[in-house]
């Protein structure tokens, strides 16, 4: 059985840790997916049985704004895969069900990526549909 949970890019892990810290500091209700962390085939099988789905967004923000139920964010490290089919499918599913779903660009350095994420969250929390 192939491992459908590829090893997470270390830069993406750093970005997610910085972003999670910022979200906490803002008092924003969120949860992070750990499906991208590779802990071996046994754990991948267990995660799958427990309901973890390939392509699920890295961060889910549980704050309804601007007609959306919440905000789903897929983080990307510089040079990451921006054409992941399963992530795009999740994005479509979530948007069809009333969630705003964003996949960040893959051309941003670590701190640029953090700034992009912060700006998108702030726009979302202000109720913008852009």
Compact overview of the structure:
This protein is α+β, with helices and mostly antiparallel strands.
List the helices and strands and how they pair.
Layout: H1 10-25, E1 30-32, H2 41-49, E2 59-61, E3 71-74, H3 85-96, E4 100-103, H4 110-125
Shape, principal axes of CA atoms: globular
- Could you spell the SSE succession in H and E letters? HEHEEHEH
- What name does CATH use for the topology? Trna Endonuclease, Chain: A, domain 1
Q: Tell me the number of structural domains.
A: 1
Major sheet size, sense and barrel closure: 4 strands, mixed
User: Can you tell me the CATH class?
Assistant: Alpha Beta
Estimate the helix proportion, in percent.
40-55%
Q: What's the multimeric state? A: single chain
- Give me the secondary-structure category: alpha+beta
CATH architecture: 3-Layer(aba) Sandwich
Radius of gyration using CA atoms only: 15 Å
N- to C-terminal separation?
41 Å
Helix count, DSSP H or I runs of 4 or more residues: 4
Parts with pLDDT < 50 across at least 5 consecutive residues: 1-7
User: What proportion strand?
Assistant: 5-15%
Q: Order of strands across the biggest sheet?
A: 1-2-3-4
Output mean pLDDT.
88
Total beta strands: 4
Structure description:
With 130 residues, the protein is α+β, with helices and mostly antiparallel strands. 41% of the residues lie in helices and 11% in strands. Helix 1 packs parallel to helix 4. The protein has helices spanning 10-25, 41-49, 85-96, 110-125, and strands spanning 30-32, 59-61, 71-74, 100-103. The protein has a four-stranded mixed β-sheet with strand order 1-2-3-4, with helices on both faces. It contains four helices and four strands. Strand 3, helix 3 (85-96) and strand 4 form a beta-alpha-beta unit. It has one domain: Trna Endonuclease, Chain: A, domain 1. The model is unreliable at 1-7 (pLDDT under 50). It is globular. The longest helix is centred in the N-terminal third of the chain and has 16 residues, at 10-25.
